[in-house]
Amino acid sequence: MEPTYALIPRSLHDRKAPHGAPCTSCGLCCMISLCQLARRVLRMPETPGPCPALVLDDEGKSSCGMVVDPARFAPEAVRLHGAPAMSRAAAHLINSGNGCDMSLEGEPFDAAYDARLESEARGRWRLNLAARHMWGVL
Fold first, then answer.
1. Is pLDDT at 59 greater than 70 in this prediction?
2. Average pLDDT, rounded, for the chain
């Protein structure tokens, strides 16, 4: 996969957590590119960021619209599974709560963190499959 290059405002760069550290909700990852869930749900496979599902609050904290308002992106699936289940599935698919998985060029890469994410993903394949099925992104 081709690396993504973007000019990053200093204010966002300074707010971004180091790779593997707890997320600061800076939104930089979603401003630069779309995650796999967004690319599939929004049918935008080669589109750079910002992600149309990115939600910024008044303080500049980011969140994923598919987590906070899944009905906006998958109304039929929400009718079938319910908004809370769809929110949980989206949060699982974007690795919400697992730390900053974005590594900027020149930033130290936390290989142990990356290996832990890979290991956990292999152990949760049933949950991954169920979440992907709910979102229709098999």
1. yes
2. 90
pLDDT for residue 75 = 98
What tokens were used for 120? 């956990």
Measured distance CA(65)–CA(59) in Å, rounded: 16
The pLDDT tens digits for 68-110 are 999 999 999 999 999 999 999 999 999 998 999 888 888 899 9
Report the b/e string of 50-80 with b at 16+ CB within 10 A.
bbebbbeeeeeebbbbbbebbeebbeebbee
More confident residue, 47 or 118: 118
- Partners of 56 in the beta sheet? 62
Show me where the domains of the chain are located: 10-135
Backbone dihedral angles phi then psi of residue 86, each to the nearest 5 degrees: -65, -40
Indicate if the alpha-carbon torsion angle 26, 69, 73, 88 is positive or negative: positive
Per the CB < 8 A criterion, the answer to whether 92 and 130 are in contact is: no
Hey, how many other C-beta atoms are within 10 angstroms of the C-beta on 44? 13
